[in-house]
Structures are given as structure tokens and as C-alpha cells.
Amino acid sequence: MNRAAMQKTNLRHQSDKPLLQIADLGVSFPGVGEVVRDLGLALYPGEAFGIVGESGSGKSMLARAVMQLLPKPGKITSGRILFKGTDLANLKPGDMRRVRGSGIGMVFQEPMTSLNPSMTIGAQITEGLRTQGECSRQALAPRIHAMLERVRIADPEGCLKKYPHEFSGGMRQRILLASVLLMQPDLLIADEPTTALDAVIQKEVLEIMSEVTRDLGVALMLISHDLGAVGAYTERLMVMRKGELVEEGATSDILLRPQHPYTVALIEALPSREKSWRRDIPAASGPLVEVENLRVVFERKSFLPWAKPTCTEALKGVSLTVGRSETVAVVGESGSGKTTLGRAILRLIDHVEGDIRVAGEDVYALSAERLLALRRQMQIVFQDPYSSLDPRRRIGEIVSEGLRHVPDVTRAEYRDRARQALAEVDLSAEYLGRFPHQLSGGQRQRVCIARALIMKPKLIVADEPVSALDITVQAKILELMKRLQVDHGFAYLFISHDLGVVEQIADRVIVMQAGRIVEHGARDMIFDQPRHPYTRLLLKAVPDLHRSADASYRIGTRAYSQPTAAPDGMVFDWAEDGNDSGGAGGAARLIEVADGHFVSCRPGLAAS
Amino acid sequence: MSQTTIRLSHFSPGPILVGSVLLLALIGLVWTPFDPNALDFAHRYAPPSLQSLFGTDHLGRDLFSRILIGASVSIAVSGVAVCCALAAGTVLGAVAGFYMGWLDRGLMLLMDAILAMPGILLALGIMAVTGPSVAGMIGAMAITFTPTVFRVVRSAVLSLREKEFIEASRALGNRNGFTILYHVVPNCVAPLTVLSTALFGSAVLTESALSFLGLGVPPEIPTWGAMLSDGRNIFAQAPWAVIFPGLAISYLLLGVNLFGDSLRDWLDPRAAE
Amino acid sequence: MTYAVKRIFMAGPTLLVVAIIVFTLMRLIPGDPAQLLVGDLDDAGAIERVRREMGLDRPLPVQFGIWLSNILQGDFGRSAHSGEEILPTLLYRFAITAKFTGIALLLASLISVPIGVVAAWRAKTSFDYAARLTAIILVSMPTFWVGLILILVFGIQAHLLPVVGYVSLSDDLYKGLLYMIMPVTALVVGELASIIRMSRSSALEVLQLEYVAHARAKGLSERRVLLRHVLPNALAPTLTLIGITLGNSLGGAAVTETVFSIPGLGRYLVDAIYARDYQVVQACLLFVSFIFITVNLLVDLCYPLLDPRVKL
Prior knowledge:
The complex is a heterotrimer of chains A (608), B (273) and C (312). Chain A has 608 residues and is α/β, with parallel strands linked by helices. Chain A contains 20 helices and 25 strands. In chain A, strands 13, 16, 17, 18, 19, 20, 23, 24 and 25 form a nine-stranded mixed beta sheet that branches. Chain A has a six-stranded mixed beta sheet with strand order 6-7-8-3-9-10, sandwiched between helices. The two termini of chain B are 14 Å apart. Chain B has one domain: MetI-like (MetI-like fold). In chain B, helix 5 (134-161) runs antiparallel to helix 7. Chain C has two domains: 2-72, no CATH class; 91-306, MetI-like fold. Chain C is built from twelve helices and no strands. Chain C has helices at 3-27, 33-38, 44-53, 60-72, 86-121, 126-139, 143-157, 173-207, 210-217, 222-260, 265-274, 278-306. The longest helix of chain C is centred in the last third of the chain and has 39 residues, at 222-260. The model of chain C has no long low-confidence stretch (mean pLDDT 87). Chains B and C meet through helix 3, helix 4, helix 7, helix 8 and helix 9 of B and helix 1, helix 6, helix 7, helix 10 and helix 11 of C.
């Protein structure tokens, strides 16, 4: 932020009274302890204030304490929460109810459960307004209509008669936003409002939220683990850790010159290209993985034996190669088929069409014995560190499980080998006897990596391996994965929706959308000169935080020049409005636009 | 289950109640104050006293002795029936859940059909075939309970199939048989333990209800249900002949239910930290 | 394929398998039904004639086919014992049983669903503990024993209520009701517990969902949160349980009706078993299963009313 803007902020601090002022707040759970400690903050009318923290930082509990919606048996143990001069901490339930909705509105995280499935949207919107004493449908209708239009709901009238399950996650969050803002609160608390959404939708919702609150003069408290998102949409922010305030100030100040070591660590943990690992890839001795024209169709059988099964085409003819010791990242939103691709290569899916060869052998045509031998060479690390470890097995058993199939390893050696594998992922031998639920998320993910590592694989398919982790843990796991690759020289097929992570780790990037590849090429090529409109949309949705030459940090969105033109005589097979122009009707195919850089296009219309 | 630590906060009287019934049943096997079947017409309809704790019935038989004997019968019959149902249901459920396809459909249809007949009614129908007998009783209850076990195991297997650690096991090259034994079955133990206490409770109930109707265990064996059936006829003269056998059933069931509740709390994965 | 059609289609095969099970079971009964019917052990000619009349000399699958097609035409055969047609008696007896079980289930649901929801809302308070403890004690008492104790206390000791028997409501409303009090109470006591537990646990689950927090964050009163947001969503799984409970109490009627000497379907079945009247036994088994399947079907068809995510 520039000097003038900073002065403006300071001026406001002197002139305005804070809308919400929290002092010495303590929240604790019996048996767990204090989750918020000695916390103070001041939030001014109309400003956008961000709270950033990792899991366990107490940021959500802080929000819920303000609303007096703490889950049982949580309690406010000390401090004051002054909202327009009233202390909410000691308010009677009846009085608190009048503050909720009309004074402070709240938007929750989970779009799938934040609307009541058994009530229409209209009923849920009006029931809140009725508590404010406005009962006539005629009086309410135009206001509701206007607000729904404001959050860009295409058909406000039809929307009111529908049930929540008829909407997508992004739509639901916007409806929720509208229903909360209709009650004209002075403050909107948004607790991880977009975490469960795809990046493009996430950006859209956050933009609408920040725009509408600004227009209506509603103060916004945006809570998130995502420093990038909070940084891009707030004026001031506060960093929390383990229930305590770490640092507070103007957003630009904190990003430019973080003072507290934890804030510095948080920012440094963000993935970036500067941290990518450059290493020597051995001279090509033929690709490790070759996938040609892979098609996967999932059939859902009808309960009637004679009825045709319903088919979903998860992959529509995908071809790719992964070289030895190479890191290939597959990027796409949910439903793009990226996970299916990883599973198919490991033959975890029963039926596919097309060719998959690993180390020259056709994965789907192998005998059981040869498959077993090949399986040792390719391993998988999953996203969810909670369901990828058998809860009833000890870590030692989990890590050494695969050794049963390694010839010449006796049972006596299992423990030693498991200990070695754990040591490689920086876990000491004392973990051998523990159970998965005794480990943290990051530790579990290390165990998953050790389980793969013990097989000495040539390929590791990593399916969103860091998505479920906190940012600082994520950075450590990525660092570990990098070191292991340098040490052992295996290849990664790295499946992720997170472009930041991909930018840091990938040698090559494959962008997928709706079961096909839209663009692929070397990492720098894709990030610096994306050609396909879909790739550009994805990239623009992610706030880009990078370190300047003077060691300060800046947040920006990736700016790309005007839409690129398709190669001569071709049109792109996808446009930002979601429509495929269809071109001359020819099949889409990948065209090489630069050395190793391919883009999916169709033959263009002859006239144009 | 070894990671399940028994915490004091989970203390429940259930195990104590069940344990005390088990102990009494064991004692009843070797010693009873009186011969449970000895007729003593001099002491018909004797009210509860120090000598005869629960009183005597219309034939002068000592009710306390009969309840002790009845305990071992009820527990043994119910226990064996539940074990049979567990074995059959687990095998069929695991096979159906893992292999799916036509086998699964066929088994599901059969089990749904059995479940579509109210439990006691099906047991009654089977007892109509076999006539009152211990083996018939066990068989009838085993058949009645198998579908419940089947459904629990099958759905557990189906949800486990989707778990990533099962996929990881396949990626390591393990065969289906190994994966079922090493990963699937141990994870079914928790739901099955909870289920078997519930089934044991309904077995005790079913057994006593059928014996009450005279269609369960043969009348010469003193069971709690049969004692209630006898007691019903001498209601006016000897209310204790109805009160005590019923209290015995309720006491055992209360223990089993409390035990099942605390088991559920321990084994609930959400309760684990 | 819509949900409703799917559910109706699935009930068909289940019923068929039930019919096969019931039929097989009855053919396994030791003894010759024709002989039982004739009664005279020496009259071989009469036995042979009856056997032919009843189709017992045909192969089993054919017998099954004939039996099933008769039933589909509403012909459940005749009682081997009294020679009466089964269906009219069956329906008459069922009407009595249905009255008792229906009223009991309705009362039990009306009492326990609110208790369950409030117990979940006030989880870990004394109300919650009291509700759970009561539920677990009630569920541990066999229904027929509760019936016996009620008779003992209110009938034999206090002389407040008629001990056993049945008076039709249409004959004498007051007396009929009087005779219903104890059986219905016994049934309600048995059913309360499971419904309380189910509605409590499903309400507990709903209470943790974000839409409840959202409803509160809108400033709604707790009453409205419970009535509009928690109750409807907790009701769906509870409704399924209520359907199953109805089936169980139809089965349990055999015992309860014996205790109170009610001439219902359960008593009809038990008497038929005593008399080895297997035509009646199989008719009863099949009929009750049919009712059970139909009730569960109806419950499932009601589901979309409570949960619009399930489409009819």
C-alpha cells in the first residue's frame, strides 16, 4: 500500500470509533484448554479485516465467540467483546439474538451443509428477515430480488422456489451471502467461505463478497488459512497462532515487512517458483510412463438387470509421457479426471481403453506375477492422510507391508527396513509402534511416503499429497519430497489443483479439463506464456505472491495480455463463457505451438 | 483394538451387571440352594423368605434355584445363537461386499426377505417346524439374526473398499484375500462387537418370549420365559413367580445394553483423539 | 428411473422370496397335513382324497405355483382345523392387532421424538442423562413382562382396570378403551426407548451441521431453530426406525396378545401353531410380512417429503 493510503487508514483510526472491539478475550474448552488467549482487536466500520492462521490457531473459535455460537462445551472465560458499545460476552440470549443477523451476519465454510436441505431458498431467506419485523411478502420481494441479482444469481425468482441441493457450491455460498446481507448487518464474518471451492469459483465468490460489502458499507471480517486470499481482499489483517495474536497491521505492511518470525515463516512457506528444485535429469533412455489415448468410462449399473448402465466418461482419450526422474504435474479442477488418470496408471481401475506402458510393459496386459514385479516400481501417495492409513495397524506394520512381495527380504529385516524408511522421512524409530491416530497430519503423510519409499519405486503418483496440510507443514513435506527425489531419482506424477505448489515442483505441467488435456508443456512455458483460455482462467484465479528483489513480498494477480490467438487456421476448443465454438466441427487435438508446448484446438472455420 | 484405552470417564456399570449374571449362572451350574425341579407340595406358594429367597411356585419348586439354572440356559442359548449368526453373517457379508455382482444381489435379496419378516415371527415359524427344542431355538435365532450381521459387515466392507488404505494395499501388490484378512476384517471388529451385544440382548428377549409361549426351549428345562409362563397362571396366589423371573431378564438386559453403550463409546472412531 | 418406481420394483422380488421361505418352512413341518385334517389315522382312502384335493400329490414347485396364484386371487385356503376360509378371519383378526399396534406406535412416537430432540439439544445435561437412563431401563424390560406387571398392579391388586380380554370399540366405546389401556401402555413402554435413542442421535448429528449455526446466526429463536431446522431433518432416519418398530410390534403381537388374551392376529398364529394348522400359519406369516414390506415401502415413499434431495 502506498503512503497516501496508509495515512488514510491512520486517519480513520483516529476519527472513527471501532465497530467491534475485542479486549483480553479468552475462550476455553474443558479438557482441551484455552483455544483463544488474551486476544484483542479493533475493527472499524466499513473496513475489510482479515484473520489468518493455520489449523488450531483459534481463528474460527474467535469468530464463533463473537456470535456466541461456540460449540459446546466451549466458554468465554475472560475479556470483552464490544460491538457498538455493547459487551456481547455478557449478553442475555434474547438480546444476543437481536445482534445476530441484524448486527453481525456470518457466512460459514461448508457450502454443502450451510443451507437447510429441507427448506426452499425463499423460506430460508425470508425467515431471517421476519425476525426483523418485516412480514409482508410484497414488501420483501423486491429487496430479495435486488440482492440476489447483486450476488449475480441469474434467475432470482426461480431460485427462491428451489432447494439447496439444486445449486452448486459456489452458487450456494452466494445465496448464503445474499441472505445474510439482506438483514443489513454492520459486520459480516466470513469463516473460510471459499475453502471448499475450486480456485476459479473461489475467486468469483470472494470478489462478489468484497465488492458488495464495500458498496453497502458493511465491515468484513474474512477468516482464512490462505494468506493469498486474505491478503488480496482485505485492508488490515491479523495473524493468529495457537490462540494468540502474532501480528496485526495494514495488509500491505505485513506482507511487505513481516515483523514476527512466525509471519515470516508463514510467508516463506508459500510455494513459489524460486524454491523449485533444479537438478540434472539423466539423459533420456526412453520414457518411464507412456500413456496413449487413455479412455476410462465408469458405468453405474441400473438396479434393473435389463436396463442400460449409465456411463460417465472420466477420461476422453488422454496421452502423455513421464520421463525417468522427471516431475510431471497434472493440474485441473474437481471433475477434470486427474485423479482417475493417476489411478489408471497404477492399474487401480479395473477397466480402461488405450495403452499404458510403464518401463516398457503394458500395465493392463501383464500376468499377475509380472504385475506384482511392476507394482513395486510404482507407488502412490494419497491426499487424505486420515483414510490412507489403516487405523488398526501400527506404523511399523504399515510401512513394511509391501516388503512381503520383495524377494530376499526376511521377516527379521522388516523392522530394520521400516526404520530406515522412517529415517528417510525424518521420523524416529519410536514411531514404529504407534498407531496412525496418534500422529499429526504431516507425520501421517510422511508415513505414506515411507510406505511408498520402502519399495524403492521408479515412479510415485502423488495425488494431492499436500492439499490437506497446513501451509508450513506443506512446505516441509514438499521439501522432503524434493530431497528424496534427488537422493533416489524416481519420477513424480504430481496431481494437484494448487497452481502455487505445481509452479514450485513441476518440470512439466499438464492442464486437464473435463477428462482431456487442454495444454501441456514445460513449467515456465505454461506459467509465463499460457496459450489456452482455460489455462489462463485457472492461472488468473490464483493470487500470486512473490518476493521482490528487495526481499519484500507482493501480492498480485497474474496479469496476462489480451487473449492469445489460436494457432493458424485453428480455434480453441473452449472459451471463458464455457461455450465451445465448435470450430469447423473437427475433433479437438493437441497442436504444438512451441518446443514441447501443446495446446488443444479444433480446426477453424474456413471463412475466418 | 489394542489402541483402545479404557478411560475412567467411560466407566459403566454394564460389565458389572453382566459379570454378576455370568457368575450366578456359573454357580447355578454346580450348586443351587434347592433342587430346581424338586416338588415340595408342603411349601406351595411360599412367599419370598430367607429360606427361599424368591419364594416357591404352585409345585413348591424353589424359584431362586430355578432362576439360577435358567440363567445358564438363557445365556448359553443366546450366546451360541449370536455366535452362529456372527459367523454366518460375517462370511456371507464379506464375500458379498467384496465380490459384488450377482452373488451379492442374490444374497441381498435373500437377506432382505428374511429381514422383511418380523424377527419373533420368523423364529416362531421355525419353531413351529422343529417343535420346542434347544437346537431349534438356537437355529431359529441364528437364522433370524444372520441378515443383520450380513448387512453390517457388507456395508462396512463396501465403505472400506473406498478407503485409500485399501487402494494403497492393492498398489503394494497385495491380493484380495490378504487385503480382506489384513485390513478389512480387523476394521469390522468394532462395529461387530457393538452389534453382537445388541443381538445378544434381543436373543435373550426372543428366547424368553418364545419359551413364554411354550414354543421355545422344552418345558422341562427351567428358563426365565417358561417360568413367566408358569407364573402367569398363578398370578393371584404367587405374584413373585412373575416378578422375579422378569426382573432377572431385565437385569441381564440392562447390563447388556449398558455394556453395549459403553462399548460403542470406546470404539467410536470419533471418540478417539 | 425414479426413486418411487425403484422402491416399488424392489419390493416385488423380496415378497416373492418371502413367499418361498414361508412355503418351504411349512412343508418342512413333520407330519402329513392331509392326515391331520382327516384325523382318522386308518382311513387311507379319505387321506388320499384330501391329499388330492389339496394338491399335495403334485411336485413341490407346482404346489407353490398353485398356492401363490390362489393367494394372488385372494384365496388363502381353508383352515385345516375349522374348515373356515382363512382370509376373512385373518382380516378381522388383523384389524384388532392393527388398532393396538397403531395407537401404541402413534403415542410412542408423539412422546419420544420430542424427548429425543430436546435431549440432543440439551446434550450432557441432567435432562439428557435422565432421558437416556429411562430409555435404557425401559428397553431392558420385556414387553410381555411389563404387561404382566401392569395386570398384577392395576388389575389384580388395585382392581382399576379389567384384567384380560377385549371389547370392540364399536360395541362399547368406554369399555373398549378401558380394555385397551394396559396393552397399549405395555407396547408404548417397549417402543419409547428405541425411538428416543434414534431421534436423539439423529438430532445430535443435525445440530452439528452448519445450517443450524447459520439459522442461529440469523438471529432465529431456539424454538424456531429446533422446529424448522433440526426436527424435520432429524425426522427422516427416525421415520425409518418407526416403520421397523411397527413390524416388530406386529411380530411381538403374538406374545402381547397372549398375555392380555386379545383375539388378534398374533393369537391367531400362536393358536394355529399349537393346533398344527399350517395353512393358517403360512397365511399369517405371509400376511404380516406383506404388511411389514408395505409399511416400509410407504415410509420410503414419504422420505422425499422430509428430504427433498431424494426425488420421487
